[in-house]
Write a structure and sequence with these properties.
Elements lengths: L16 E5 L4 H13 L5 E4 L8 H7 L3 H5 L2 E3 L2 H5 L4 E5 L10 E2 L1 H13 L4 E5 L8 H4 L4 E3 L12 H14 L19 H17 L9 H13 L5 H15 L7
Parallel strand pairs: 1-2, 1-6, 2-3, 4-6, 4-7, 5-7
Helix pairs in contact: 1-2, 1-7, 5-7, 8-10
Length: 256
Amino acid sequence: MTSGKDPNRPSVLGGPTIILVQPQLGENIGACARAMLNCGLTELRLVKPRDGWPNEKAVAAASGADLVLDGAKLYETTAEAVADLNVVFATTVRTRGMIQEFITPRTAATELRAHFDAGHKTGVLFGPERTGLVNDDLTLAEKLITVPLNPSFSSLNLAQAVLLIGYEWFQTGEIPPDRVLHTGQTRPATKAELLNFFEHLEGDLDRTGFFTTPEKRPSMVRTLRNALERMQMTEQEVRTFHGVIAALTGRRKGEP
């Protein structure tokens, strides 16, 4: 995947602290840092990383998420890592027979956003790659997050889990539109420009005998207009199609 760095676009930063408990590989920590910054999360805490800290392999895997790695804090125990936080959620795949409230990442993100907006310090715990969090760590959390995936294969790697939680968090903020029409140097066509184009097209279709059945002409015109409206044409595209029609009908520019 190509780089998504753009110094000309503003950063959207802030959110819950991500706490990785006994992560095993530096590469996994780096991948988590990358996933975090993708979602605007910058505060990373590490509890007894197996291969020590700092870790050169983490830097390489972070793909430029130095902001996260440079600020990472090291702790000896999970309890120390969450001591200053007001609200802590933890991720787990198994219920482990515990009487605890389990919520989805989407619900967790919504609740974390409410706490964050209220000024509370929040955090999410992630366990070691092979075993996940132990029960003593889970008891430090108010709620447990579990991801509803394929019951027969619900395994996620550490960075995937962080990205999934981070993405749901990011979506609770100022959510960008589902789709954006990039118009380059032009702009979306106005309705007046579109209507002028439609009339040009329909006029030439009349002259060339396209509408062979007069009573069907209104419905055929609506079909054409609906199809062309769905194209979301730009002003430049409308002008181009005017030229296409003129070329096809043999009329020169400026001719009636």
